[in-house]
């Protein structure tokens, strides 16, 4: 059973169904959970062959109406989301510099149903400094100096099982201050994404892989859809993936819309690892050369 599905099942049993009522707002827990997984993937720092460090401190910014609905449950929801991040990291063999925390905050510039996820890597209080830890690129985990910049919380003595010390230098063969080999040893950049080779494309739904072997792929609840999704929140012809450079996804006038990498949209560009949420189902888009 996937990490996201286990997360959903745990939520269903909380507070005698209170979460189910609260989450009738446009922002769904599984959308936030998928965005946290994506945040880990996008900000993973490879220290050596056996260690890849990912953020451990997250802020989920919500619109004022969504924050008002969810804030009474922020403690329980934060714990569940932190548990999901921990499970996902174990599955991907990621490690952390300190305890995992997930905070909910209000953002007045967001409309109902929209949200942002920010993250940083914070070392535990056993480190020399309480400032956000600087990864190999000298940036916070969110790709900005010092992470997202709010004061670090007073963490405990470290994560269960301990965390190996941070290396003093980048891994062998890596250019100083980066996660990449020196420029002289890198091959020239390709003219475009996945250019010059045949591209394989597929989607993964609940652990099942569906190859994309045609220019368009319709997803929906109807038996006439190219990929049928048995989910009451999915329309008969919900959305369509269009292959190309780049590939895109288009909403087909569905009732509940689509969410791509945490953003409600009607059309979006897809890249390898993009997460698409339709109804309560998460779809992962994949592509690779070969």
TrEMBL record:
Compositionally skewed regions (Polar residues) per UniProt: 121-132
SMART domains tied to this protein: FHA
Residues covered by region (Disordered): 121-195
UniProt keyword annotations, A-Z: Phosphoprotein
Biased composition (Gly residues): 137-149
The FHA domain, residue ranges: 217-265
Pfam families in the record: FHA (PF00498), FhaA_N (PF12401)
Pro residues biased stretches: 162-174
Composition-biased stretches (Low complexity): 175-195
Name the UniProt record assigns to this protein: DUF3662 and FHA domain-containing protein
Gene source species: Streptomyces ficellus
Taxonomic lineage: Bacteria, Bacillati, Actinomycetota, Actinomycetes, Kitasatosporales
């Amino acid at each position: 059973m996937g990490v996201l599905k286990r997360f959903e099942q745990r939520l269903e049993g909380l507070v005698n169904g209170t979460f189910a009522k609260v989450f009738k707002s446009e922002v769904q827990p599984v959308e936030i959970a998928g965005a946290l997984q994506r945040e880990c993937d996008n900000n993973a720092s490879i220290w050596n062959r056996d260690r890849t460090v990912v953020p451990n401190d997250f802020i989920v910014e919500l619109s004022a109406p969504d924050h008002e609905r969810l804030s009474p449950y922020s403690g329980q929801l934060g714990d569940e989301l932190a548990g999901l991040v921990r499970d996902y990291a174990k599955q991907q063999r990621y490690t952390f510099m300190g305890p995992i925390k997930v905070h909910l905050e209000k953002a007045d510039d967001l409309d109902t149903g929209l949200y942002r996820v920010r993250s940083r890597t914070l070392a535990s209080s056993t480190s020399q400094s309480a400032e956000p830890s600087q990864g190999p690129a000298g940036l916070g985990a969110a790709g900005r100096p010092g992470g997202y910049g709010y004061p670090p919380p007073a963490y405990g003595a470290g994560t269960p099982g301990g965390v190996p010390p941070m290396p003093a230098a980048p891994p062998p063969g890596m250019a100083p201050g980066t996660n990449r080999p020196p420029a002289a040893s890198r091959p020239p950049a390709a003219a475009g994404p996945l250019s010059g080779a045949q591209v394989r494309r597929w989607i993964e739904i609940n652990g099942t892989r569906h190859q994309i072997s045609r220019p368009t792929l319709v997803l929906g609840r109807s038996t006439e859809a190219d990929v049928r999704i048995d989910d009451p929140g999915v329309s008969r012809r919900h959305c369509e993936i269009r292959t190309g450079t780049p590939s895109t996804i288009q909403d087909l006038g569905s009732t509940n819309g689509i969410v791509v990498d945490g953003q409600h949209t009607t059309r979006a560009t897809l890249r390898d690892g993009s997460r698409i949420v339709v109804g309560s189902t998460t779809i992962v888009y994949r592509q690779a050369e070969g």
